[in-house]
Amino acid sequence: MSMQDITSKTSQLSVGEHVVYVDETKGSDATGHGTVDAPFATALAAVTLIGNMPEEKQEAFKVMVQKAGAEAYAEITASALKKARKAHKDAANKARRVAEQAEKQQAQGEAKRIEEQRRLEESAKVELIQDAALPAAKKIRVQDAEAHRGQRVKVFGWVHRHRVQGRDMMFVVLRDGTGFLQCVLTDRLCHTRDALSLTAETTVCVYGVISAVPEGKTAPGGHELAADYWEVVSRAPGGDDAISNRVSEGADPSILLQQRHLVIRGERAAAVLKVRAHVMRAFRAHFDAAGYFEVTPPCMVQTQVEGGSTLFEFDYYGEPAYLTQSSQLYLETCLPSMGAVYTLAESYRAEKSHTRRHLSEYTHCEAEIPFISFDDLLDGIEHMVKDVVARVWAEPETRAMIEQLNPGFEPPVEPFVRMRYEEAIVWLNEHNVRHEDGSPYVFGEDIPEAPERAMTDAIGKPILLTHFPGPIKAFYMPATKEDPRVTESVDLLMPGVGEIVGGSMRIWDHDELVAAYAREGLDTAPYYWYLDQRKYGSCPHGGFGLGVERFLAWLLNRFSVRECCLYPRFVDRCQP
Hints:
- The protein has 18 helices and 20 strands.
- The protein is of the alpha+beta class.
- An 8-stranded mixed β-sheet has the order 10-14-15-20-19-18-17-16. Strands 5-6-7-9-8 form a 5-stranded mixed beta barrel.
- A hairpin with a 3-residue loop joins strand 18 (about 490-495) and strand 19.
């Protein structure tokens, strides 16, 4: 109790009675005053109240206790009083020690503040001057540090982290986007105002000689820069506005999304984006090696590919237009002039979905290939995934980041499982994967994300799921000759993520495609140019689309595709 509480509760007592009441059943230490009408619940509260009174008054008070089940108050027993007094004494001693410790810490903190202020004032007098007798410093990037060991260099970058060791040594880990470099500052270099007030994310330029770290020591790249001069380029804030207070590990996801521009400075987020860059390069290398041409289709269109409900519509000079759902139709127009083609471009879906694998804007890797069969298409998708993974795995830097983000990952080498849609329905029912109401899945219905992922994770291998029923697939997918109920269509399912690729053969007969438009209730007029592909020399052809963010979520074992792009766009999120 505080002295104010004690004074208040003492004033409630009857001075004439000099009695403090305790009711173990109805009393309350928090709201009681020790009176008959407002008794305490424990003898400790009563003894505490009495023990904090002036000594000359303490002997005049006695404690009356009404135990649970008793009909009246009785004076506290000697043993109970002794026990309560001991507990009160222990609590008082503990409170005194806590108060003494707090006072000591406050005094130490004040002394430290005064010392820091003194050092800061002294640091203003320290001025660093480059030694003109030293060799001229060569400007390098961190990734070039190993090639310049033993030479005097200068490196620009951001302070990723730093620590002070004593008064005369400071370790600063510099980040410049190409890597990390440990810089060692000693003596006067540590005594400047800039050194004493250094904050994370401050940009600096450090001069010195790069050497391998001593045996038994570690540092990024196995070397460090012994600084002989340094300067601040731009100072980052500290205190409440320090970056560690803006973004922190374990913060609410909505905060991290709002501060995404700062989050991407972190090692993990930066590694994801770097792997993404290497993966994009690997896709291009794969297609280039296979003789594909890259094309750049428009993103503003007046046609749909995947259904009107997911179109982003806007006014295009007085006409309705949309952000593209897919570049597939435009890629098909390139087949007669360029052969096999691909694109890496953004696609847009106005799906009001909050799942961890959906984005409203995503990077779409799409390809179209002429004169192929459905089996050729399946082989091509499997080869592409394996080849792209092999390419990034062969780069030591990229492999290191993949292993950092997804320990234990191994590139797929075994043939992908090939399973028909009808077989998947059977698998789900045999393994008791059912609708929420307990009903089984039946042929003809779309398999939702959750059961699809449950099956994929249980099998534990990539699955080329094929031959979906026509009504649940896009209008341009042809029915198979042996079973007109199903189409020559495929989804590639990956453990932990689910679908990352959707593909099919394309209807290549003019009249059949017109009939497909009619079934969907689509006006063929806006698609005149697409129908012309079937009019002026058609051919069997197929293609696919891969979501790059989903591919990365699988490769890097990320929980959500939102981690796999620079600034994710989804329902209610269009910032920063």
